[in-house]
């Protein structure tokens, strides 16, 4: 049995796929509202498209999802979204194979914490409990997972959830890890330090929303003088949560907003920080963790999701609601040096170039099975 980078494995899913060198044309599609608050799924899609260009795959990124599929060999969807179901059905009607990067995690605690209202929490948790007890219970998500030709989770743990909660056959799943650009291995803090006058701070990178738990990090460090940098924009609909973060943050918390993924200021922020703290309710495993780890930044990550599968002993793990545990982890991390072993391993195992080749192998498998390669 195989796993991501030969780390922990209890999964029956095979990830060793040898790509065949042919020219393919693939349409990539993500969230229709991605421009409002882009997240990890959108970065994953953009990075995949960029890396594919060097290995014989022609990619087109769809903004609306309504573009014609004429001449397309394969449709690659990013994210488990209701809007993807009609796209998948339309592609199937044209005999065009569909693969789906699921970007999903199913856990009761994360469902409870991802909603701000009690009504929303009860609704989300009730649906999860029904799904746990009755995997065949109909839903748009189950139909989407059974419509596409291949599901591409980012970890073995995520793959196992697809089997457990939706009865997806293991042979319809190919684990493809998330990746990071090699440029994040270039440690140069000067740009960020000159722009903001900060160095050795705790960095929290991600969209501001309850699931990311920035408020928990802020509360955990309120009685300290440790500076925190919050890097990200608020998710629409969670403005009250952002206001609470700002209200409780105080002078030691700096809100910078979203930095474009291809802006050199982003890698400079990783280089300038003392540690990265993702105290989310889950990560799959979190692009920020891979990017920061590329330069050996000490990592504090949630103990739920697929983080351990990627980082093993090269990170500290915390429960998002354990404020004392978060505070202890930060104190420890800020005393640590950069982890060169972690940086080397991520650079070798999780580069976007390697991810692209594995992904192309999935395209080839699906296309060869369907016999629909355009010539």
Could you walk me through the main structural features you see in this protein, from its secondary elements to its overall organization?
It is a single chain. The protein has helices at residues 40-52, 84-93, 108-113, 118-133, 140-147, 156-166, 190-196, 214-220, 239-249, 264-272, 287-293, 307-311, 323-333, 340-349, 352-370, and strands at residues 24-29, 57-62, 74-78, 98-101, 150-151, 202-205, 228-231, 253-255, 275-277, 299-302, 316-318. It is an alpha/beta fold and 375 residues long. The strands form 2 sheets. Strands 8-7-6-9-10-11 form a 6-stranded parallel sheet, with helices on both faces. Strands 2-1-3-4-5 form a 5-stranded parallel sheet, sandwiched between helices. Strand 7, helix 9 and strand 8 form a beta-alpha-beta unit. The chain is globular. Mean pLDDT is 88; it is low at 5-20.
């Amino acid at each position: 049995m195989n796993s991501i980078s030969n780390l922990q494995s209890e999964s029956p899913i095979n990830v060793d796929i040898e790509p065949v060198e042919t020219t393919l044309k693939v349409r990539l599609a993500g969230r229709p509202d991605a421009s409002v608050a882009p997240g990890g799924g959108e970065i994953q899609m953009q990075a995949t498209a960029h890396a594919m260009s060097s290995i014989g795959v022609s990619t087109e990124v769809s903004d609306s999802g309504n573009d014609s599929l004429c001449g397309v060999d394969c449709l690659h969807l990013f994210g488990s979204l209701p809007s993807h179901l009609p796209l998948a059905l339309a592609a199937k009607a044209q005999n065009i194979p569909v693969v789906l990067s699921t970007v999903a995690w199913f856990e009761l605690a994360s469902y409870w914490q991802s909603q701000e209202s009690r009504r929303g929490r009860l609704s989300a948790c009730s649906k999860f409990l029904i799904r746990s007890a009755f995997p065949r219970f109909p839903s748009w998500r189950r139909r989407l997972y059974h419509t596409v030709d291949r599901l591409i989770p980012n970890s073995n743990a995520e793959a196992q959830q697809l089997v457990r909660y939706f009865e997806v056959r293991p042979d319809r799943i190919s684990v493809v890890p998330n990746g990071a650009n090699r440029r994040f291995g270039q440690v140069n803090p000067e740009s960020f330090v000159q722009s903001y006058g900060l160095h050795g701070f705790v960095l929290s990178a991600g969209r501001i929303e309850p699931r990311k738990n920035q408020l928990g990090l802020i509360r955990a460090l309120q009685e300290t003088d440790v500076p925190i940098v919050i890097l990200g924009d608020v998710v629409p609909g969670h403005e009250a949560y952002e206001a609470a973060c700002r209200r409780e943050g105080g002078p030691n918390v700096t809100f910078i907003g979203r930095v474009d993924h291809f802006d050199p200021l982003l890698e400079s922020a990783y280089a300038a920080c003392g540690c990265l703290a993702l105290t989310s309710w889950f990560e799959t495993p979190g692009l920020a963790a891979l990017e920061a780890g590329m330069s050996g930044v000490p990592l504090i990550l949630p103990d739920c999701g697929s983080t351990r599968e990627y980082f093993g002993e090269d990170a500290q793990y915390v429960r998002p609601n354990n404020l004392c545990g978060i505070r202890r982890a930060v104190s420890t991390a800020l005393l640590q040096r950069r982890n060169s072993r972690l940086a080397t391993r991520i650079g070798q195992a999780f580069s976007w170039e390697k991810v692209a080749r594995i992904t192309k192998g999935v395209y080839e498998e699906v296309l060869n099975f369907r016999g629909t390669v355009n010539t």
